[in-house]
Amino acid sequence: MRVTQAIQPVLELAAPLNNCLLAVLVTVLLLWLRRRFPDVRWRLLAVGLVVSGFASAYHLMASEPAGARWLAALNSPLFAVYLVIIMPALYLPRGPWRQAFMVFPAAILLLAAFAVRDAYDTVPPDRRGFYWLLIRPAFLIGGVVSLLVLIQPLLSLEWFRRAVRLTCFLLLVYGGFALRQDYSDYQAMLARRPQAQAGIMNLSETWPVLQSDRRMLYLPGAPCRFTADGGYVQGCNLEMFQRFMQLDFAKVRRGDPGTIGTLSVLLGALILFLCLCFLSGRWACGWLCPLSTLGGVLDWFRRRLGLSHLKPAQPLKLTYLFSGLGLAGMGLAMAKAYPHLDAEGKFAGCKIPIYPFCKICPSQQICPVAAHGPDNYPGLPTWEWGFGFFRVATIALLAIFVLSFAMGRRLWCRLCPMGMISGLFNRGGMVRLVKDASKCNRCGVCAEVCPMDIDLVRFEMNNNDVSSFDCVLCLKCVAKCPRDGCLQLEHAGKKVVESRFPLEV
Amino acid sequence: MTAEQFDTRYAVAPRFAGDPAARQRAELVVRQQLQHLAKLTHRPGNIGWFEKQVVGPLDQRQGTPLIGYFCNTIPVEVAYALGARPVQLGCGNPALVQPGEEVLSGEICPLAKSSFATFLTADGTPRKCAAVVIPTSCDAKKKLGEIVADFRPTFMLNLPPEQNTARYLRLAVAEVERMATFLADVLGRRLRRRDLLAAIELTRHRSVLVRRLQTARAANPAALSVRDFFIIIQASFAGADLTEWLHETTRVISEVEAAGPSHTHQRTPLILTGAPIFWPNFKPLNLIEECGADVVADTLCTGAQSCFDPVVCDEHSWSALWRALAQRYIFASPCPCFISQATRLSRILDLVAEFKAEGVVNYGLRLCPLFDMEVYRLSRILKERRIPFANMRTDYSLEDTEQLRVRLEAFLETVGAGT
Predict the structure, then answer these.
(1) Among all residues of chain A, which has the CA nearest to that of B250?
(2) Is B350 within 8 Å of A438 when comparing Cβ atoms?
(3) Has residue B45 been placed in a domain?
């Protein structure tokens, strides 16, 4: 008896947990209840009622084919993992309840191991061999998050962040070919390989693992899908916005079913993305983005050499911000040309790539190389593309990327438009950086360690909320602050982590 | 060529004034205070080691050069990194006020006078120091530097008037760097990054131990008198070998922790703030404990506050290291020599909340206008928050002891009545 089959009814019953709306609903509800009801039991009861109500409505709606399609577009295993593993891990106070809860991630980890075994059992006996890891996304995400939750108590905040970054890097860059869903998916990937070049001058559709069921998951940060064999998730949010721009809205008005279908899938993806941003702010930039993990290697070299970093003055910060906005605007505007490209791929006599911003984004140069070696480099665009604009911009942005990370900590992240969008949710979202100014000794360590060179945390003395739009929530200030409880991170009003001076010699 | 800090044209030969009677009186004060402490019931087993460090004379067997310094705004890590041992030259001996006053003017605080008197004797600690570093933390210190420069090579560290990193960080960093160059020149050694990082790590250990000891003490103040606590802390900057100090203090911590939290807590927990209290002038501490109160935490630059904050360096470039030192020692200092007293005020309020203290006592040193004028805001803010506050304004002499005792007892009665 296969374990994955045995728990199938349970998974189906728990399907509403995958819905992004439920995740947001529960989080906001908890924030509201925290203010109104100090008693935990009332809060649990209210959450239980809302979840069961939502689940009944979900199952009712899912019985209708159209409703099921809409719901599927709003589902992602990420949200189930968030509700079931991450939330309790963040919210349960240290003590017996938390220790008892730890059994749960351990069980999920075990389940993930069984899921891998089950996936291998489906491989025909004569084809058995080394296929990396065959595992379904839900089990993979659940397993990885469970592992991180289990090792978290053993690590300091900084080492935990390193562990999460490395895990996300491996998952997002190598996950596309190393972690396929099952054997048939793996075979399909091999069949696509000869024609699936990363060149995006002409769209050769790549197949990320998480694209099944016409469902797309775009992340804040830069998980580039132009890594060979499709990447793991659909890609970054800027790819999503380019897809929006590519839509021919004239066709939508005429009621073209294909275009409307694409639009509906994209709208689902947009809602998923906004929910993620609302729940986590710019957290993904500090903990998940593979581009900054790679850039961090350059930063590490600079530190090893004992060189000090370039502290950007306000004009330089603003230059980066507006350059990023300008480039994103240009890329999105050019994506609008897609429906009007002629047979040679030209618009008004000018060759324009299908994903114009992706072409100049350094991630598209770096991630394929990181995943499959230098042979996979997509190559520089020739001069005919955009009258040379793409060639120049590609080289310039790559140079800025390398220089910014080599000299200015995370100066690059001030230019990155993907991070800017999720950064908007740093204030007003569910994540807040909070400072207790009465505990502050003005030593300025928070500003000294900040990879984004933010001074607000140091200077703010009147306001508790020290979140800012450019903060990547790396929590280095929280980890390094020498005053206990001076800085803390709040999620939906609940203290997640606070500064604590380590008392170990 | 850079301008010298002190104009050598007007340098005068130092005049030593060994006053044997004053010396005998000073030794008597130390002996009396030691006898007074010996009456305490719970003392750590190895308190003798700490007493030896603060009483002196300095043990210089290894031939380690000494760097004398004043105040808690000097980055001592630089001295450690250069293979020297920093010695805090502040003196609390009331018997030495008189000899100091004979040379200096009368209108400065007893701390400056008695500290200066140690320069006048032939075998005092300052004469063993290779160099002296003084910050411009108050008028007395500013002028003391020029006088002391006749006795030992002296460096004046210019403090910014305001703890504003945006405006003064560059200046402060340049000062710290200049101090490091001066010390390296005097000692004839080269400052290496590795050594500086090791020194920062060493003082971080000191912060860890001081915090642990403070937490353990707060749970049961009866297990360790605040006077012994001060002796332990002051031993660490009285020229003791810091590694040895860490070892001995770990033993004290385990003793205090073994005593466990007290269940019968009847004594009033107080927060002590104000001017520095130097060995052997433990008059305020003696009084508070004898009147039945406990100092659970302090903001004194000769108390736990002095070693509470570590130097945090994230990057190891020279400029990052200088910044880390300057920010810890100058911009995080609660010293009243800076324009705003907000750092000190919030520290006091935070300590009251953290240690559930029932009152705040300010020790104001007579003739120190800085601490004196801060009482205006301190008393008003504490009154607003309904935290009982007493100001002990006194000097080194023991004449007003009984008067202070009466006032303190009255204050503690109102504290008891308020709760």
Answers:
(1) A505
(2) yes
(3) no
